[in-house]
Every structure is written in structure tokens, then in C-alpha cells.
Amino acid sequence: MLPTSVSKERSSSAMSRSNSMLPQYLRRIIKWQQMDIEYTFWQMLHLCTSPKVVYQHTKYHKQTKNQWARDDPAFVVICSLLLSVATVAYCAVYDHSATHAVFVVISVLLFHFLITGAVLATCCWFLTNAYLREESPNSHVVEQRVEWLYAFDVHCNAFFPLFVMLHVIHYFLSPLLVAHGFIPVLLSNLLFMVAACYYHYLNFLGYGVILSGFNPSRYFLNMYFSQRL
Questions:
Q1: DSSP-based three-state secondary structure for 2
Q2: CB 154 within 8 A of CB 202
Q3: pLDDT tens-digit profile of 151-188?
């Protein structure tokens, strides 16, 4: 579990540092020169093949910059562009109206990726900081809080392999999957099940890297017996 310091000053300073990260993060979205495109594609590749390597680098990032979240918005920008291209490809095949295609691209980008991700990240950020931290008796321990941007990073990391399976692989298999019969239905459901399971697995890895000492069985047993007593 995340250690919590008894000092309120450290808590307020950590929160203020987390709040100051967001405006700087948003300003860098329009500055392509400051984005590490090569490292972003490296992360995307390894999220699909060996995601633990990506979160091992997240630990190094915390040790060098003292923050879990990325300070580079390249991952969100590139993922948004790829999602837009994939949606346009679907619209080119299955949609006959340019106006409706524009609406579909905007709705997929905003609601399916950004807004849904922000809601999920906010819920996970609140639950992690509220219930998965424990008080540390050592006043010299630096307080560890899950940054909201890191919670959003975890969603983006988990979303990319889901995007590959449900937007890219599904697109090339669509001539088979839209056919009638038991096999197309089975393959479609299997593809969605694998994508959903992998999404939740990457969420588990993302929060597990900062909750390395967290034992969920012990945590819920302690909660149960404390309420009984």
C-alpha cells in the first residue's frame, strides 16, 4: 500500500505539485518539438507484447523526476490520431454520409476515449488515494499519492491494446465477422472478451506498480473484522 506521512504540509505540497502539472501538460500538446515520438511508439509496442517492461520504466521515471505521471502528452496525441484514422476507415467502408462520419469521429474520440477515460481515471484516482493508502508511523516518509494524470496514463496504456484489437484487428476481420453463423459470433465475442480482459489486466499492472506492498486479501479481511469488532 502507499505510505502516508502524518505531515499535513507534505500532503498539501504534493497536491499543489500535482495540480500544477496539468496546465503544463496541456500546453505541451501543441508543441510537437517537445514530444518524444520514438519513445511513445516504443511504449505502444511493448504495451501489446510485454507491458511489465513499460511499468518498469515508470518506476525509473518516478525515481528520476519524482512523479508517476508522464510529462509528455505524445501518447495521448498519437493515440487520438490513430483512433481518428481508424474511425475514418470504418466510416469509409460502412458510412455513406460525410456529415455523419465527422460526427462519428468526434464522438468516438471525445466520448469513447477522452471523456470515458477521464471519468474512469477520476474514480480510480479517488478510490486509490482514499482507501488504498495506510498511515506510516515514520514522519520522515515522503507521502505517496496517486496523481490524477497517472490514473489517466493508466487508462491510456490499457486503452491502446484494446484499440488495436477492437479497431484494427476487428477492421481487417470484419468481412468474416459480419457474416451470419455461429463462428462469426463466437469470434466477435472472443475478441471483445480478450480486449476487455487485457484492459483490466493493464489497469492492474498500472496500480500494482505503485501499490507493490498491497495485499488485497489481507486488506479486505482487515476491513471485515474491524467492522465486526
A1: strand
A2: yes
A3: 999 999 999 999 999 999 999 999 898 888 899 999 99
Other CB atoms within 10 A of residue 205 CB: 18
Q: What is the pLDDT of residues 78-124, one digit of tens each?
A: 999 999 999 999 999 887 788 888 999 999 999 999 999 999 999 99
Cell output for 225: 473484522
Residue-wise burial string across 55-88, b where 16 or more C-beta atoms lie within 10 A, e elsewhere: beebeebbeeeebbbbebbbbbbbbbebbeebbb
Per-residue cell: 7: 505531515
Q: Which residue has the cell 505503485?
A: 210
Average pLDDT over residues 33-40: 86
Whether the CB-CB separation of 135 and 6 falls below 8 Å is answered with yes
What is the C-alpha to C-alpha distance for residues 44 and 184, in angstroms, rounded to an integer? 28
**Dist. CA 152–CA 118, nearest whole Å:** 6
At residue 4, the 3 state secondary structure works out as strand
What is the distance in angstroms between the CA of the first residue and the CA of the last residue of the chain? 23
pTM for the full model?
0.80
Residue 167: all three cell numbers together: 479497431
- 160, three cell numbers: 491502446
